[in-house]
Design brief:
Number of helices of chain B: 4
CATH class of chain B: Mainly Beta
Helix content of chain B: 25-40%
Oligomer: heterodimer
Helix content of chain A: 10-25%
Radius of gyration of chain B: 16 Å
Largest interface: A-B, 28 and 24 residues
CATH superfamily of chain B: Jelly Rolls
Structural class of chain B: alpha+beta
Strand content of chain A: 25-35%
Strand content of chain B: 25-35%
Strand order of the largest sheet of chain A: 11-9-8-7-12-13-16
Largest sheet of chain B: 5 strands, antiparallel
Order of helices and strands of chain A: EEEEEHEEHEHEEEEHEEEHEH
Strand order of the largest sheet of chain B: 1-2-9-4-7
CATH topology of chain B: Jelly Rolls
CATH architecture of chain B: Sandwich
Largest sheet of chain A: 7 strands, mixed
Structural class of chain A: alpha/beta
Radius of gyration of chain A: 18 Å
Bound molecules: flavin-adenine dinucleotide, FE2/S2 (inorganic) cluster
CATH superfamily of the largest domain in chain A: Nucleotide-binding domain of ferredoxin-NADP reductase (FNR) module
Distance between the termini of chain A: 44 Å
Number of strands of chain A: 16
Chain lengths: 280, 165
C-alpha cells in the first residue's frame, strides 16, 4: 500500500483503523497497535492523533510507534476518563477512527551533531519513543544518546522490553529511576531530575527532549539550565484539553499559543513564562 | 559503621588525593582537606551489607567512591521501603553533625561498595577549633540537606500528582 505524506493540518475527517494487538503495559496503561483500512499516513516523532472510539468520543493521543512503519501505528493510553478508559478496554479486531497526525514534531534535525538527551516521566516515554527509535536508526548522526526515565514505582514502568533492549544496546545510555520502591527492586530510587547533574553529556552541545508531568518538566528544565544547557535547546511537550486538533476551536489555548497548532512540542523559552502563570 | 567493612590499604598521600578528588570536597581549601584526611580511611563493603543502621551511633561521614547504596526504612513484617538510592560521588548522612548523633535510617549496599570513612568526632573537633573550616563544612552539609529536601519535595509532588490522576 502506498504511504501518503499529506499535510493533515486542517483535516477533520477521521479514517477507519482496526486494532491488531493490545499490549498491557501497566495496570492502567495499554498500547494498542492499529492497521489502516485505507492508505497509511506518514508521521514524525512527537506528533499526535485524535483517536475516536465510535459512539463515545475522541482524545488526543501521541503516536508511540516507529515512524518508518506508518502501516502499523501504536498509541499508548492511560485510562483517565471516558475515552481513554474505553480505549483501555478494546479488543483486537475492533475498529476505531483516527485523524491526524497533528502538531509540531520533536526537533531531531536540530540535534544532529550534538548529544541527544531524552527525559521521560511515566507515560511520557510514549511520545518520545518514536524519536528514540528514529535516532537509533540513524545513530551516526548524533553524539551521545542518553535516556533518563522516571516512573512512580517499578510496576508503573512502561515499555519494559524496549528499556531492556536499549539497556543492552551500546548506542544509548539508559538510566531508569523510580520515585518509590521496596527492597528487591535493585535499581535507582529518586526523582528523574536527580540524574541530570551527574549523567555524562555535553551541556553546551546537546538537545534535550522532555516529556512527562508538567511539574517534572519544570524541575528538569531548572536542573538543565543549572547544568549549563542553553534554554533554547530544551524542548518540552505540553498537554491541554483538545477538541479540534487543528487550531480552530481554542480549547487548547495557553495564553497566546494553541497547543495543537503551535505545539505540542515547544522550546523552553517559548513556554516557560506561560507555565508560571497560574490562570492559564 | 558496618562490621563488614574491610579496610583497604592506602598510604596517607593516596588517601588525601582520593579525598580531594571526591565531589564533596570540590573547591575545598587544600589545608582543610589535609586536616580531614588525618582521620579518613578507605573501606570496601560487600553487596547486601548494612553501611549504617537506624538507632546506631552516627560516628562517621561516608563518602561513596563506587557502588550503590539504598536508604531504607524497615517496618516489622514488611519489605523495607527504599527512600532513595545513593551512588559513587555521593556523601551518606548528616546525622553525625547534629545531636543526638544517631542514624535515622538504614543504609544498605546494593552492590559492592568502596567508600571513604571520615571520623565524626575528628570532624566535629575541627569545626569547633577552626571556624573557617567549620563554615566551609557546614555550608556543604547545608547544601546537601537543601538538595535532598528539594528532591524529596519533587518526589512528593510527583507522587501526589500521580495519586490525583
Ligand atoms: C498532544 C497531546 C498528546 C497526548 N498524548 C497522550 C498519550 O499518548 N496517552 C494518553 O494516555 N494521553 C495522552 N494525552 C492526554 C489525553 O488526551 C487526555 O487525557 C484526554 O483528556 C483523555 O480523554 P478522556 O475522555 O479519557 O478523559 P476526560 O473525560 O477528558 O477526562 C476525565 C478526567 O481525567 C482528568 N484527566 C484528563 N487528562 C488527564 C491526564 N493527562 N492526566 C491526569 N488526569 C487527566 C480530567 O481532569 C478529568 O477529571 C495527550 C494529550 C495531548 C494534548
Ligand atoms: S484543539 Fe482546537 S484549537 Fe487546539
Amino acid at each position: 500500500m502506498p504511504v501518503l505524506d499529506v499535510p493533515t493540518q486542517g483535516t477533520l475527517t477521521s479514517r477507519p483503523y482496526q486494532i491488531t494487538t493490545v499490549r498491557h503495559q501497566t495496570h492502567d496503561i495499554v498500547t494498542i497497535d492499529v492497521a489502516p483500512q485505507q492508505h497509511p499516513i506518514a508521521f514524525r516523532p512527537g506528533q499526535f492523533d485524535m483517536v475516536y472510539v465510535y459512539g463515545i468520543g475522541e482524545a488526543a493521543i501521541s503516536i508511540s510507534s516507529d515512524p518508518a512503519t506508518p502501516g502499523l501505528l501504536s498509541h499508548t493510553i492511560r485510562a483517565v476518563g471516558w475515552v481513554t478508559r474505553a480505549l483501555n478496554d478494546l479488543q483486537p479486531g475492533t475498529r476505531i477512527g483516527i485523524r491526524g497526525p497533528y502538531g509540531r514534531p520533536w526537533p531531531l534535525q536540530e540535534a544532529e551533531g550534538k548529544d541527544l538527551v531524552i527525559i521521560a516521566g511515566g507515560i511520557g516515554l510514549a511520545p518520545v519513543r518514536p524519536a528514540i527509535v528514529e535516532a537509533l536508526r540513524h545513530r551516526e548522526r548524533y553524539g551521545r544518546i542518553v535516556l533518563l526515565k522516571g516512573a512512580r514505582s517499578p510496576r508503573d514502568l512502561v515499555f519494559r522490553d524496549d528499556l531492556d533492549r536499549w539497556h543492552a544496546d551500546r548506542g544509548i545510555d539508559v538510566h531508569v529511576t523510580v520515585d518509590s520502591a521496596v527492597r528487591g527492586w535493585g535499581g535507582r530510587v529518586g526523582v528523574v531530575t536527580k540524574l541530570i547533574p551527574r549523567v555524562p553529556f555535553d551541556p553546551e552541545n546537546c538537545v534535550v527532549l522532555t516529556c512527562g508531568p508538567e511539574v517534572m518538566m519544570w524541575f528538569s528544565a531548572e536542573a538543565l539550565l543549572k547544568r549549563g544547557v542553553p534554554p533554547e535547546r530544551i524542548f518540552v511537550t505540553l498537554e491541554r484539553n483538545m477538541k479540534c486538533g487543528v487550531g480552530t476551536c481554542g480549547h487548547c489555548q495557553l495564553g497566546p499559543v494553541f497547543l495543537c497548532r503551535d505545539g505540542p512540542v515547544f522550546s523552553w523559552p517559548e513556554v516557560a513564562g506561560l507555565l508560571d502563570v497560574r490562570e492559564l | 559503621m558496618s562490621h563488614h567493612a574491610s579496610l583497604t590499604a592506602g598510604d596517607p598521600d593516596t588517601l588525601r588525593v582520593t579525598l580531594a578528588g571526591h565531589p564533596f570536597c570540590a573547591d575545598l581549601d587544600g589545608g582543610h582537606v589535609r586536616a580531614m584526611a588525618e582521620a579518613t580511611s578507605e573501606h570496601e563493603l560487600p553487596a547486601g551489607s548494612l553501611l549504617l543502621q537506624r538507632g546506631h551511633a552516627a560516628d562517621a561521614l561516608a563518602l561513596l567512591l563506587d557502588g550503590d547504596v539504598s536508604l531504607e526504612v524497615t517496618e516489622p513484617g514488611d519489605d523495607p521501603i527504599v527512600l532513595e538510592t545513593l551512588h559513587g560521588g555521593d556523601p551518606v548522612g548528616w546525622s553525625w553533625l547534629f545531636p543526638p548523633y544517631r542514624w535515622l535510617f538504614d543504609a544498605r549496599c546494593l552492590t559492592p561498595v568502596r567508600l571513604l570513612q571520615l571520623d565524626a568526632a575528628h570532624l566535629r573537633g575541627l569545626i569547633d577549633t577552626d571556624p573557617v573550616f567549620g563554615l566551609a563544612l557546614t555550608q556543604r552539609i547545608g547544601l546537601l540537606v537543601v538538595q535532598r529536601l528539594q528532591f524529596t519535595r519533587a518526589q512528593l509532588v510527583e507522587m501526589t500528582h500521580h495519586a490525583r490522576a
